[in-house]
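Lay summary. Proteins are chains of building blocks that fold into shapes, and those shapes determine what they do. In this project we predict the shape from the chain. Here is one chain we studied, written as its sequence of building blocks.
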Amino acid sequence: MDQPVYKRVLLKLSGEALLGKRSYGIDYETVNNIAAEITEVVRMGIEMGVVVGGGNIFRGTEADARSMERVSADYMGMLATIINSLALQSALERMGVATRVQTAIEMREIAEPYIQRRAIRHLEKGRVVIFAAGTGNPFFTTDTAASLRAMEIKAEVIMKATKVEGVYDQDPFENGEAIKFERISYTDVLTRNLKVMDATAISLCRDNQLLIVVFNLLQVGNIKRVICGHPVGTVVGN
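And here is the predicted shape, written in a compact code that computers can read:
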């Protein structure tokens, strides 16, 4: 049986990961599939935090480009992440996994406020903690929120789930000859302007020596493979 190489991880899901075959909103079959993979690793004793984006419902930067005021647009995007987090929580709890949603924007009726010590305590008790509403501040992406929360809960790695196999020197959807990296440094990601995570998130990880593994979420079983140390995706580190 595969043995995990990490004990505590932070899984970063894009909002688009929840789309499935839809063009907008939430595909519940896809959410259930993701929840099933999370359930499998949690039952192995893994402590898992999750940050979910909101791009399947509302993306603040796109609204800003259409002349909506950026601060309002970003707050709308944060609310979208809360909707996604509640959907994932529901799917996990149907599978018997204890789950807590913590939000950076207080809304006590539906979720806990984010408190670092409480989040760590939930993880120690085997609960999945879903961090919603980004950092609670405009102008910061959910990638940055993932880096921040990962450091606050003392995660050993950020698992960045994507639609491609890892980090490439070019967009693999636009160039079939794009080369995939097995490992790349934080500095190379920044200087090459590779679209792994935004520059703030990468810089935070570099400054705190936090590993990032970029992998294909669409390949069933990849969450477990990454946690068990299989050569999946691309490792971003020193």
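What the prediction tells us: The domain at 8-237 is CATH 3.40.1160.10 (Carbamate kinase).
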